[in-house]
Amino acid sequence: MNDTVDKLVVFLAKRDGIDKLVKTFQYVSKLVHWHVEATNPGVAQRAKQWEVASGLSRKAFRSGRFLTGFNALRRNPGNTPGFRFLAVLANAGEMVYFFFDHILWLSRIGTLDAKWAKKMSFVSAFGESFGYVFFIISDFILIKQGIQTERKLVHGLDNKEDNKDVSERIRKIKVDRVMRLMAVAANVADLIIALAEIEPNPFCNHAVTLGISGLVSAWGGWYRNWPS
Questions:
Q1: Domain ranges of the chain
Q2: Looking at residue 79, what is its pLDDT?
Q3: Which of 28, 46, 160, 192 has its CA 20 to 30 A from that of 219?
Q4: Would you say 113 and 152 are in contact if contact means Cβ atoms under 8 Å apart?
Q5: From CA 95, how far away is CA 83, in angstroms rounded?
Q6: For the segment 44-66, what is each residue's pLDDT rounded down to a tens digit?
Q7: pLDDT in tens, 122-175
């Protein structure tokens, strides 16, 4: 129990940890609003207010987040020219997303003219979806490479003395694969949310689709950021 509490403290000390917690609040309240809208308008209104407040607080908390893309490229630009190219495209899209998301937030709280909100929301969502496509492609390529490496390790084992080292390398590959699958799930979910803004349609814009997508994204982030 104490270990879990300690991990929770560490998790919530991170900016991403707080963001995933508030994102959970945001999309749980969206689903609650949809579920009780017809039967209990009072509860539905409070849920809607909670959703809006959570969304705005997340935008405020992410101030300056667009600069993390530069740091990501500086620290891990990729091992090959192909991966460096994918990393530039992915992080460029994410930087556009966060930068214009800041302007969207200022528009929605009344600091800037409200007429900017719709345009900024579209540009932000477009940058977000653009970046997520390349993040997803990169993760799938790395997952495939990990599977190929794992198979070579298993089939290339020559003697028993190598068992321990090979088992540890295989374990690390499997852990990395799970983390990347969580990242893919979160990015696909966020891509659906972004598409709802770029090209509104009955499927992506349905409250249940948005709510489930938001929770998948939030909980995927929980898993990836939870202290090991």
A1: 2-225
A2: 67
A3: 46
A4: no
A5: 18
A6: 999 999 999 999 999 988 888 88
A7: 999 999 999 999 999 999 999 999 999 998 888 766 555 567 788 888 899 999
Neighbours of 149 (CB within 10 A): 13
Going by C-alpha positions, the residue among 186, 194, 192 that lies closest to residue 224 is 186
Residue 76 has pLDDT above 70, yes or no: no
The residues near 22 (Cβ < 8 Å, ≥ 6 apart) are 54, 57, 58, 61
First to last CA, the chain: 15
Task: Give the whole-angstrom CA distance, residue 119 versus residue 105.
Answer: 12
Q: How far is CA 223 from CA 17, 21, 104, 136, 183, in A?
A: 10, 12, 29, 17, 9
* Contact by Cβ (8 Å): 55, 211: no
Residue 16: how many CA atoms within 13 Å on its side-chain side? 12
pLDDT value of position 162: 62
Give me the numbers of helices (H) and strands (E) for the chain, helices first please: 8, 0
Mean local confidence (pLDDT), 188-211: 95
